[in-house]
Design goal:
- The protein is α+β, with helices and mostly antiparallel strands.
- The protein folds into two domains: 293 residues, Rossmann fold (3-Layer(aba) Sandwich); 102 residues, no CATH class.
- The chain is built from twelve helices and 18 strands.
- The strands form five sheets. Strands 3-2-1-4-7-9-8-12-13-11 form a ten-stranded mixed beta sheet, sandwiched between helices. A two-stranded antiparallel sheet has the order 5-6.
- β12 and β13 form a beta hairpin.
- It is globular.
- The two termini are 25 Å apart.
Length: 432
């Protein structure tokens, strides 16, 4: 392309979207940073702010890897939109919160959501930009489709309606990275939106919804899927304004209306249940392990193994709460140690530290048990080795970063497909 796609990265963490879109030091994540990667994307501005800590470690790691130019370490809700440069695409893994609408304004700024809810910071940036970004590429946890519990799917409906009001069409899919050969079982929803003046938007208008979702969308070309055997599909309108949707959508509904894939065009939702279709190679846990390079503090003392076996094991026991009330507690067992011949379980933010835990990864090697190293956790998210290594940043914090991060390979693949579609200007690129 003559000009690169200018990107703004919000809720940047340690730069997962940036590594996926730009590559790292000219190399591709999907090749293990061995093959050249020519990127058509350029991050022109980024923001990372962690409200719960004084030390902004994630932002420091980001600056260490990518430089301080164009990077903001300020509460995004307080950033002056006019200071954000014009961009073609906005990306980010925004936090899963309560997206309900608190009030409707009479002035030109439209609608406001609850204070402090970060979706509305994205909404504000888009709505106040002199030139709206043509593309949005967002990531979230898959429970977004069924939140909150008393109005299943309302939060996602609010997002879709607000994007419709801003002039966008939307496609989405829940993707488990391991289903497509990546080393970690990590399910996340990926949302791509297209402004009404783009050729992709115009293609969506003319498309047959089921064909778009299963064959012709950016996500479908990137990560092929077929219809689930249950053949569940739905069509419905997002009725009323955003305030009405916030208060009334699926009220008292016991089940959600959104399936794991779908599209929204001109306020109408089409959604269906899909299953992945993948015939490539698979990466498993043993493929990311370091060989003889892990330091002693990651190994578990023999005298502590009983604690790990207990926490990982099945339980049926009587427990007491803080008030002394006794109750029956039960939970199923987990495989211990973690199998090395399968993709890993999902990394969580509490992965770091030596204390025994039900959810931390433990492997057996040479008749010894150990936790995963920071490099191994980075590899499970397909980051470069030691991406988060920085003086003053502990191994516990590095594990926390990876628990919050996304699988970079998914971003890379979708980014490559989107660029092809933009370059060619074609309505669709049918899958063979």
């Amino acid at each position: 392309m003559a000009n690169k796609i200018k990107v703004v990265e919000l809720f940047a963490g340690v730069g997962g979207f940036r590594v996926g879109l730009e590559g790292y030091e000219g190399k591709s994540a999907s090749s293990g940073y061995k093959q050249p990667f020519k990127s058509e994307y350029e991050i022109v501005w980024s923001n990372q702010w962690e409200p719960s800590t004084k030390s902004q470690h994630a932002s420091l790691v980001y600056e260490n890897r990518f430089g301080k130019k164009g990077h903001s370490n300020q509460d995004i809700s307080t950033v002056d939109v006019e200071t954000i440069p014009e961009h073609d695409m906005l990306v980010g893994g925004f936090p899963c919160q309560d997206y309900s609408v608190a009030t409707s304004l009479k002035n030109s700024k439209g609608l406001l959501g609850k204070k402090g809810v970060l979706w509305w910071s994205i909404h504000k940036i888009i709505s106040e930009q002199r030139k709206k970004p043509k593309y949005l590429f967002l990531e979230n946890v898959d429970r977004l489709l069924i939140s909150p519990s008393k109005q299943r799917g309302r939060d996602f409906a609010v997002i879709l309606k607000s994007l419709f009001d801003l002039g966008y069409a939307v496609e989405w899919r829940v993707i488990n990275a391991a289903d497509y050969g990546m080393p970690q079982r990590r399910r996340r929803i990926f949302i791509i939106a297209y402004l009404e003046n783009t050729h992709i938007y115009k293609s969506m208008v003319k498309s047959i919804p089921s064909k778009w979702i299963l064959n012709d969308s950016i996500i479908a070309e990137s990560f092929p899927a077929g219809p689930h055997i249950s053949n569940i599909s739905r069509e419905f309108e997002l009725e009323g304004d955003i305030v009405k949707i916030s208060s009334d959508f699926n009220k008292d509904g016991r089940t959600g209306l959104f399936e794991n894939a779908g599209m929204m065009i001109k306020g109408k939702v089409y959604t269906l249940k899909t299953i992945p279709q993948y015939e490539g190679n698979f990466t498993v846990l043993k493929d990311v392990l370091q060989n003889g390079e892990v330091t002693p503090e990651f190994y578990i003392d023999k005298e502590d193994l009983d604690k790990w076996y207990y926490l990982k094991g099945a339980k049926k026991e009587i427990r007491k709460n803080a008030d002394g009330f006794e109750y029956h507690y039960s939970e199923g067992g987990m495989i211990f140690p973690d199998p090395k011949d399968k993709p890993s379980r999902t990394i969580i933010t509490g992965e770091g530290g030596p204390s025994a835990s039900r959810f931390k990864h433990v492997i057996e090697t040479k008749n010894k048990f150990r936790r995963l190293s920071p490099i191994e956790l980075e590899r499970l998210n397909m980051f470069p080795d030691d991406h988060t290594k920085l003086e003053g940043v502990t191994d516990v914090k590095r594990a926390f970063f990876m628990g919050n991060a996304l699988v970079v390979g998914i971003i890379e693949q979708i980014g490559k497909t989107l660029i092809k579609r933009i370059e060619n200007g074609k309505k669709v690129r049918p899958r063979k």
